[in-house]
Amino acid sequence: xxxxxxxxxxxxxxxxxxxxxxxxxxxxxxxxxxxxxxxxxxxxxxxxxxxxxxxxxxxxxxxxxxxxxxxxxxxxxxxxxxxxxxxxxxxxxxxxxxxxxxxxxxxxxxxxxxxxxxxxxxxxxxxxxxxxxxxxxxxxxxxxxxx
Length: 147
Prior knowledge:
Distance between the termini: 94 Å
Helix content: 55-70%
Shape: elongated
Number of strands: 3
Number of helices: 6
């Protein structure tokens, strides 16, 4: 059974959602390039994530994805999530700004060569070192050469 490409995505999660949607409508699909993109996330943009289906189901899959893109399956019910408060949005922005200022998220899966250099930590270290040297210099001047 020959597989043909029915869609290409830039994000593996978007491809998984599309695959689950098609599977719920009876179209058998396979998400390709999953191994390469999970080992090296930068490859997602380079390779793209393909949805492959048997040739007999390809047209039905493309049609379903086009109808979903047009909004045919959307409902007027809205979200079941409560609206976000201003405080929650502000807290998220502040946390993101603090993480950016601190050199990024060190718990990420990025290799060391792609991690940002911790400029804030280096700046604070230099500042504290300079302040310590200044205090020692002033103290020795006061002790050795009193006014």
